[in-house]
Amino acid sequence: MKKMIAYCGLDCEKCDAYLATLNDDQSLREKTAKLWSELNGTNIKAEDINCQGCRIDGVKTPFCDKLCGIRQCALKKGFETCGACPEMEKCKTVEMVIGNNAEAKNNLINK
């Protein structure tokens, strides 16, 4: 499986936090922080929008690093991604992503 596929199946290479980090794009960091703040009902700062990928050693957004229940579960269980978990199809945690994103689910199923 591509290392840039997150534990939940999302493609990190398409994530605005990853793209802003890769290209050192302050404008994209600010735009992403504003959007994510609105979507999550919290205050996310542009300086928090830095990520080198969910499953890659390196910097991550504070949410992805410490707060993402999907990432924390996969790390705890020692799975490469949720696709390796026998409970994935009935998991309420990863359902938040794969229930709304067919590409993410395909990334996990078709590894």
Helix proportion: 40-55%
Gap from first CA to last CA: 5 Å
The overall average pLDDT, rounded, is: 94
Tally of individual domains? 1
How do the SSEs run, as a string of H and E?
Answer: HHHHHH
Query: The biggest beta sheet, please?
Result: none
Strand runs, count = 0
Describe the protein's architecture and organization.
This protein has 111 residues and is mostly helical. The protein has one domain (12-109). 48% of the residues lie in helices and 0% in strands. Helix 1 packs antiparallel against helix 2. The mean pLDDT is 94.
Summarize the structure.
By secondary structure, the protein is mostly helical. It contains 6 helices and no strands. The radius of gyration is 14 Å and the shape is globular.
Which keywords apply here?
mainly alpha; 111 residues
List the helices and strands and how they pair.
Elements: H1 16-23, H2 26-40, H3 62-67, H4 69-77, H5 92-98, H6 102-109
Helix pairs in contact: 1-2
